[in-house]
Specification:
The chain has a seven-stranded mixed beta sheet, sandwiched between helices. A three-stranded antiparallel beta sheet has the order 14-1-15. A three-stranded antiparallel beta sheet has the order 11-10-12. The protein has three domains: about 90 residues, Hypothetical Oxidoreductase Yiak, Chain: A, domain 1, CATH 1.10.1530; about 210 residues, 2-Layer Sandwich (Ribosomal Protein S8, Chain: A, domain 1); about 45 residues. It is of the alpha+beta class. β6 and β7 form a beta hairpin. It is about 40% helix and about 20% strand. The protein is built from eleven helices and 15 strands. The radius of gyration is 20 Å and the shape is globular. Bound molecules: NADPH dihydro-nicotinamide-adenine-dinucleotide phosphate (NDP). The site of NADPH dihydro-nicotinamide-adenine-dinucleotide phosphate has 29 residues, from β9 and α10.
Length: about 375
Amino acid sequence: MVTDTYLLFEKERPTPPYIRVTANSLKRFVKEVFVALGVREGDAEVVADVLVTADLMGVSSHGVQRVERYVAGIECGAVNIDPEMRLAVDSGAVGVLDADNGLGHVAALKAMMIAIEKAGQFGAGVILVRRSHHYGIAGYYALKAVERGMIGISMTNSESLVAYIGTVERYLGTNPIAFAAPRRHPPPLLYDGALSVVPVGKIEVYGKVGKEVPAGWVIGSNGEILQGDARRIHEAIKKREAAILPLGGYLEEFGGHKGSGLALMVDVLCGVLSGAAWGSHVGYTTVKNANVGHTLIALDISKFMELGEFYDRLEHMVSDIKSLRKSPWAENIWIPGEKAWLTMQTRLKIGIPLHLNIAEGLKKIASKVGVKFDVEVVEEHLT
Ligand code: NDP
């Protein structure tokens, strides 16, 4: 049993019934699943690390509940497990990586490592990726730059799920942007979010754990705002009878044009400029030539100013914000990345919560691909 709850924080409270499992055993299991499917060991390790990091950070929408999706992509041959990823364009600080239909996580990590190398040389490195697949949480890659004292930016387009402002059909992807900057002491600043009101994974998880979708997330094909049963709404989105709303909502009045505009920007970089697909031409993970595109940017702070000076200035900004008058409705004043980091520290200590429906799904995958679901359970919350 967990006794030191006073010190623990989770940004996403688990919904019973659930078990808690250790991050290491979960990562080992996910890696085994992908290796069993023929994915190279190093690549399987990357996918497992991205997915389990999402769960550690409290982003279960993009955690191991997504294993099923990538397994399906590999099984149907849409995801190439033996890709030859190469720089199709390599010009000074910029480049375009052709991912050869491989796993998006592997492609994005490779692209960010190249961007970091270029940033070390030129001050900035910008690598676009084409012919890729879904890459999970955008922030994972931005944080790789932070590990090297750089600023990291990561964006991706995705299959179309979101209504463009003034329309009711799925056209835009949920197109997240992550921005990460190092701080003198952890946690780093990490802003990482979709450009839709919510990512579809959140609605998927709500369905799996029996929660309801509130009004304001999803619009029906007649312009009606849908709410209630998350499974039903997720099905309606899948059947193209509904679309997720852009960040800001469904009208200009609430700023929906801003969410749409930013998602368009991401799509111009990740889709149009990279040579990948854009808008409704981007495929789901089980679609051949899904042609998802990403943008990975690294900025070497030391080429702009002394790293120490940057840290001082950023801390000054953080303390400005922390000393603002708090709203009576807010539990705390947070800097982006703090909740994710605290959740990660907590879950490294007490384990990652897995809803039983999600654990059941993983067990089924395990038996299908012939590996054991031998995660280490540290706690059970069955009621
Ligand atoms: P959230 O709405 O959960 O969070 C967005 C950002 O806001 C986070 O950086 C979060 O920091 C920060 N934040 C949250 N609350 C506060 C607060 N009160 N004060 C200050 N900052 C705050 O993200 P989404 O649900 O939109 O996205 C979840 C994940 O899904 C992301 O990792 C994204 O990359 C991924 N995604 C991936 C897609 C793909 O196609 N690959 C598509 C769509 C999304 P903190 O984490 O510290 O709370």
